[in-house]
Write a structure and sequence with these properties.
single chain, alpha/beta, 3 domains, four-stranded mixed β-sheet, three-stranded mixed β-sheet, 17 helices, flat
């Protein structure tokens, strides 16, 4: 989620005190669509939008105070997506992503294609292969899949070392032979029949294609000289951690949620083409922030005990929908995509939701934690499922014996 320098009025259905109307407007649909995107994908989507709209400006977040390299440092607070650093300064200079970003910066791509190229680079695996289907990258970008395919083809042809951005072993080897100018009909046949080659060698491919076995054997030598995983020649640092959408913190009146200020900001530049579309997008992002904040506030107050080290209290997505006035589907999107930085780590809001157990406010998560503690404490005595259920019930976590048996088996499987 992003902070915005302009605060357009929200659609009435986005106010927590009211339920969204059955008829979804275009603006509300944009907000709901953005709500389903995790922070990294949201930044990617807006980056592509900004590349195509001169009236939409993304600005880097302010530096977070008190962040350093010590053991307790918050890596997410200084996160900066590569789009704002095409030279790869945010990544070690010998890393794969830095190497790729430097070449993309020199490729003289139009702004929308440059943004798509960055999205593709972020989908690279350490091997140098593309780790996501093109259709998935296109969905995250909000771009036409055919346009993403075109940009991908340009990266495959123009970046060094050859083989980067391949989607399969055959494509990786094909790109390298093409770059070397050594692609032959025999090599093409081998790459088209890799499973058969692995099973029966060049002779099997010769029988299947009618090509001469000596030609296939020479082509196999060329293929074996290629690097099937060209990205592994570079350093592979851990990926940067995007900042949390919300901060859960304790104040004079208890626990509350605030929108994380150390994120990208989104601004409309007046007087340029595309102002109306930019303003609509700002409004949609503002709506996403508002929904996330409303849900986060409820959870911060309800889970104050957990935030201070106790067990989770019972609450469901349906409870949150009733309390905030949002549709259950909207709340579920929020719980899945929105993250919060807490004293116990950065987590998705979904981690703060657990079905109630009993009348004392306990939760299924608390029951599972206590059951695991009881089993560890029992050691070799192995109490019965009935005894465990009775103990949990006395502690305000009533659960059926057969339910204890089910979760006991699950805990045993997780520990094996």
């Amino acid at each position: 989620m992003l902070s915005t320098s302009q605060r357009p009025s929200l659609h009435p259905s986005l106010r927590p005190s009211q339920r969204p109307s059955a008829r979804m407007t275009a603006g509300l649909a944009r907000t709901v669509a953005l709500l389903a995107l995790p922070a990294r994908d949201l930044v990617l989507r807006l980056r592509v939008e900004a590349a195509a709209n001169p009236a939409l400006l993304l600005e880097a977040p302010p530096a977070a105070p008190g962040t350093g390299a010590g053991p307790g440092a918050d890596r997410s607070a200084n996160w900066l997506p590569p789009a704002f650093d095409p030279g790869g300064v945010t990544a070690p200079p010998d890393s794969l992503i830095a190497h790729v970003l430097r070449q993309i910066a020199r490729a003289d791509l139009p702004p929308p294609d440059h943004a798509i190229a960055i999205a593709l680079a972020e989908a690279l695996e350490p091997t140098g292969w593309l780790g996501e289907p093109v259709a998935q990258v296109a969905r995250r970008c909000g771009a036409d899949p055919a346009r993403v395919e075109q940009v991908l083809a340009r990266l495959q042809r123009g970046l060094d070392p050859p083989g980067l951005f391949a989607r399969s072993l055959a494509e990786c080897l094909h790109l390298q032979l093409q770059a070397e100018g050594t692609m032959t009909p025999a090599a093409e046949a081998l790459l088209s029949h890799l499973p058969l080659l692995a099973e029966g060698g060049p002779g099997a491919v010769a029988r299947a294609t009618g090509l001469a076995e000596p030609d296939l054997a020479r082509a196999l030598g060329q293929i074996r000289a290629c690097d099937p995983k060209p990205g592994l020649a570079f350093a592979a640092p851990p990926p940067p951690v995007p900042p949390a959408d919300l901060l859960l913190r304790r104040g004079a009146e208890g626990w509350s949620a605030v929108v994380n200020p150390h994120r990208l900001s989104l601004r409309v530049v007046p007087g340029l083409p595309g102002t109306a579309a930019a303003a609509a997008l700002v409004q949609a992002v503002e709506g996403r922030d508002r929904i996330a904040l409303a849900v986060g506030q409820r959870l911060a107050r309800h889970q104050s005990g957990w935030l201070e080290g106790a067990a989770l209290a019972g609450i469901t997505a349906r409870d949150l929908a009733g309390a905030t006035g949002f549709a259950l589907s909207t709340v579920n999107r929020c719980l899945t995509a929105v993250t919060a930085r807490t004293p116990r780590g950065t987590i998705p809001l979904r981690s703060l939701v657990s079905a109630p157990v009993g009348d004392a406010g306990g939760s299924r998560a608390a029951m599972l934690t206590r059951l695991a503690e009881l089993l560890r404490g029992a050691g070799a005595t192995r109490p019965s499922d009935r005894e465990l259920a009775e103990t949990l019930a006395r502690e305000g976590l009533p659960v059926a014996r057969r339910t204890v048996a089910k979760y006991r088996a699950r805990l045993a499987g997780a520990g094996s």
